Fold these 3 entries.
Entry 1:
Amino acid sequence: MRVAVVTGGSRGIGRAIALRLAAEGARVIAASRRPDPPEGVEGAALDVTDAAAVDRFFAGLGRVDVLVNNAGLAGANALDDAALWHAIIATNLHGTYHCARAALARMPDGGGRIVTIASVLGLRGVADQTAYCAAKHAVIGFTRALALAVAGRGITVNAVCPGWVATGMAERRWQELGLTPAQAAAGVPRGRITSPEEVAEAVAFLAGPGAAAITGQALPIDGGGLALP
Ligand code: NDP
């Protein structure tokens, strides 16, 4: 049975990914600070910003076939808030690094998969999102370089870049921007918000055997682009 770790698997996009991978028959561990796994998924308490805790967690698993770096934190105006800046970088970037390093040490050669949830903000700038944009651009750079570093082991490393996805994170941002969900949807060319399950579908493909030749890529999942402030 394949072993898959989904960080931030307790809510939102991570929860949908955990359920999707479990439906394929994998043993799935959803790791977050406050574990609340969906049915059929194991929960684990983990703060991805804590390198030593990440190492202990992965050492306890033995083998890992799939790592989904999904745990994330967003926040506006970090330019004027150093604590927020460091928290956003620590969660999105350092968390991804800690987990990738620990998982790779336990990933068998041939068939291993790392998929990181970046963002369309990893591909463009938004004025009040300096830390989040920096972190998401960085995880895409990390993905491209790490893919080359482990290509010879038959392990693939990819990122997906969602636009608006209906979760608590997006709802908080819409409130900040004074947008209703319908107004946010109107800024998407296809006219609706992406569901967590639609992101999970792409992640399951990249994590599966059919995507063995795809590595070092950053795949937008944004309904054709996004009107952002
Ligand atoms: P949510 O805020 O709904 O969920 C975030 C998840 O991450 C929770 O399970 C949370 O659990 C976990 N988490 C946060 N910090 C840590 C930490 N330090 N260690 C371990 N787990 C942590 O977010 P989404 O589901 O919306 O976002 C998931 C990913 O998708 C993120 O990387 C986000 O940046 C990205 N994304 C989201 C978009 C959207 O529109 N929703 C668009 C583009 C990208 P707990 O608090 O218990 O630790």
Entry 2:
Amino acid sequence: VEQRIRESEKLAVVGELAAGVAHEIRNPLTTLKGFTQTMMNAPSSPEMKNYLNIMLDEIESINLITNEFMVLAKPHMTITASINVVPLIKQVTTLLTSQANLTNVIINSKFLIECGEIRGEKNQIKKMLVNLLKNAIEAMPEGGNVTVTATAGNTGNVLIYIKDEGIGMSSGELQQLGQPFYTTKKSGKGLGLFVSKKIIENHNGSVRFKSIPGEGTIVEISLPGLEETMKADNTPFIS
Ligand code: ADP
Ligand code: MG
């Protein structure tokens, strides 16, 4: 009997698989990193030192990729916590301030009225915000303003906007967003948006991008509010 798996189920399986593989890679990777670092302390020749440096760089690269996928693992708790988005956004902006400073980017946050709480996996939401905010910062290599706004939507949802004054994207580029490994950056991994979209999907939310080349980009994230997720019986976090 041929079974048709719905697209969303397929994606969920892919996410779980990627997270599982990433998790399994972590321990051996830590071992490799440790021994490589130990060897770095007494390299047998300058040539060897050069090889070891390359190995550490490559290990770090694997680390970055696995970290992106790790976050897709299903939370172990049956019901996840309520998250107040305002302190979380403050935490994330603080986290990225030093990176922003390097390229003269200023991060402003505006919190319009009580924008309420959402329910979900805090680490996932945090990761998603970090990924999107990083992209906003990286879109402005010559500096500028990033504005993060949080507000209450009309349907009990929480809306988060991340606006930058960066390089922007053409409609062709916009269409490719979220494809795994799609990147236009020299040292980009092209996983940030893929993972972020999946996180938003996991939380029954949605994301939209508006962009004008040379002018900037606005990302609009909508996440169901706490009340909404309490009512819904298909919340992914209840098992
Ligand atoms: P990475 O940042 O590693 O390239 P992402 O998945 O985070 O991977 O982003 C994929 C691509 O989407 C980027 O390389 C860039 O071309 C484009 N992009 C994402 N966010 C923005 C933005 N705010 N402004 C301009 N381009 C963006
Ligand atoms: Mg990115």
Entry 3:
Amino acid sequence: QDHIRQMQTDILEKLIPHDSSGNVENLGDLNVTSNLGKMTEYYFMQGGKMLRPTVSLLMASACNSSTNRRILKESQASCQKSPQSSNLSVCKNQYKIGMISEMIHTASLVHDDVIDEANTRRGSASVNAVWGNKMSVLVGDFILARTTQILCSTKNPQVISVMAGIIEDLVLGEFMQMATPPKNTTPNQKMTAYIEKTHRKTASLFANSCRSVAILADETNASLQNLAYDYGRNLGIAFQLVDDLLDIIATENEMGKPTSIDLKLGLATAPVLFATQQFPELAELVARKFKNSGDIEKATEIVANSNGIKMTRKLIAQYSEAAEKAASSLPNRNEATERLIELAISQSDRKF
Ligand code: FPP
Ligand code: MG
Ligand code: MG
């Protein structure tokens, strides 16, 4: 928690450094005339969950515990010990991975809100609703540019490559989501494509951030790196499945944001895909992306009467359990490992 609080301040300072008179460095007049600074910090100031850095730092600490040998050798300056729990320590570069994970996530949300034509995010006006699409796209790019600077400062080519892969996956995931599958695609193929899309869109960020902190813990330990990756991938898929489920079953009041967004965007997620296997007439609505009047209500009703919700919960449980298994297999379990396990288990009954 201490690391995470400090990280929120550090991210803002890396994004838009201020000089001693409070002016935004390097941007000068450009900031005054274009609101670049305000736009850049906008989503970071709204108090996101900081889930990605939390997972990255916990995984860093869990991996470091299995490789004490290396951590002990590191200079005090490159390691940060959490004041309250002396067992949990992360290195400077691992801390940077936490920052980078949140920054890539936020940049992707800025672009996502432009693509989805969203008016709100976290209960406030979206960045594009306030400043328009054109500047929002550029601000997303600006956040990515500053993120790249931090990534390069790790001076670890393997980590730079793994983290750059996340950005590629985000773009490919978004493309997969927009693609219309060929007419003869089977239900099984649709489900496989949905999971692949979910990996790229959401899980890759968790998986590759976890892999990166594991590389930084022990460059030579491929099995540790793979366990960290597996944990992140399975947690990430479970997390997105829960999001997709809540979008269909939760009320706007519970979520604090509009629901059925996916149907409105023409997207068929796990509950709909399962329901289509049971009620093939739903396929027609999916194919026309719920465009006809009454389609969204009809699809919601069919899903509610189907086993789609139950099957999605079962799938969430499978991915949570796979994440739990990966974390449990990490050598030298410590407090952070236990927290990772709890986080995986808690996905099954997450309500928001
Ligand atoms: C939120 O999903 C969006 C994502 C998880 C990824 C979006 C990725 C891009 C727009 C590609 C470009 C990425 C970068 C880094 C420049 P959602 O729309 O399902 O969820 P929401 O309810 O949070 O909007
Ligand atoms: Mg969106
Ligand atoms: Mg989207």
